Amino acid sequence: MTAAPPSIERRRPVNGVEIAWDSFGDPAASPLVLIMGLGAQMVAWDDAFCARLAEAGGHRVIRFDNRDIGHSTHLSHLGVPDIQALMLQAMAGKPLAVPYTLRDMADDCIGLLDALGIERAHIVGASMGGAIGQEMAIHHPQRMRSFTSIMSTTGDPALPPPTPEALAVLFSPTPLTFDAYLAHYKKIWRVLRGPGFPLDEARDAERAQLIFLRGLNPGGVARQLAAVFASGNRKPALRDVRVPTLVIHGDADPLVPVACGVDVADAIAGAKLLRIPRMGHALPISMWPQIIDAIAAHTGQLRDH
């Protein structure tokens, strides 16, 4: 399989912000949209992963920067939320006042579909991107041909928490010089991805440089995290979702334990669950074939419906 370069990155005004996006594959093919997780730029969907998914599934694969990250609009004027205070309010069951919610971010994705003239698309979301996909399935099911949720959660507070190590890297401050950022990036992925993935470890410096050069926005990450906290428990609403759903989750995920993926699959009627041994909170290169084949099989069954 070839790793063709993406089309030229573009920006489109949607839902009050500008969203940066690009795509892989035949522009006339069935659209599949990738939604990345907390603080992650669209390039976290590796170019080669996107190209292979486009080829395997016969799709036009579209990835984009969520609001407040990468080359999409940074909403710095909304201020930096007090995450510790929001966590305490959330644990107390109090409503949270936040700059925006995951539903707003789902509306960004719908706005991008509108801007690109796409009526319905296959949606694939990773981590927070999976939660955004859930919001789409709850509020905009008519725009989705299928949904694939990877390493995500319903937000049910009864589910197991992250490991202390995963929480520590999640809340560690982002350095703003490259050498410090590189060390920070490698430490994060040692914890979230886990050991034993030499192909990815060899790419860490290159990936970190790409992200750093596209631009960091720690305040945006805090606002996205506030959106996660404010969105609460989606499980009751997911009971009514009828979008054909595939759930992919690693058995070794330290940030969003596998029980969370099982819960997503249990909550959505007819959802299929793929548990991948040794996979942590990452998309390791050695596991791309299994992940891509599963997504292509899921979307392929629905291509003509």
Describe the structure.
The protein is of the alpha/beta class. The chain contains eleven helices and eight strands. The two termini are 27 Å apart. The protein has a single domain, classed as 3-Layer(aba) Sandwich (Rossmann fold). Strands 1-2-4-3-5-6-7-8 form an eight-stranded mixed beta sheet, with helices on both faces. The protein is 41% helix and 16% strand. The longest helix has 17 residues, at 198-214. Strand 1 (10-14) and strand 2 (17-24) form a beta hairpin. The model has no long low-confidence stretch (mean pLDDT 95).
Number of domains: 1
CATH homologous superfamily name? Alpha/Beta hydrolase fold, catalytic domain
> Approximately what portion of the residues adopt beta-strand conformation?
15-25%
List the secondary-structure elements in sequence, H or E. Answer: EEEHEHHEHEHHHHHEHEH
Distance between the termini: 27 Å
Low-confidence segments, given as residue ranges, are: none
Rg of Cα set: 18 Å
How many separate helices?
11
Mean pLDDT: 95
Per the CATH scheme, the topology name is: Rossmann fold
Largest sheet: 8 strands, mixed
What structural class results from the helix and strand content? alpha/beta
CATH architectural label: 3-Layer(aba) Sandwich
Query: What sort of overall outline do the alpha carbons produce when their principal axes are compared?
Result: globular
Tell me roughly what share of residues is in helical segments: 40-55%
- Say how many strands there are: 8
CATH first level: Alpha Beta
Strand order of the largest sheet: 1-2-4-3-5-6-7-8
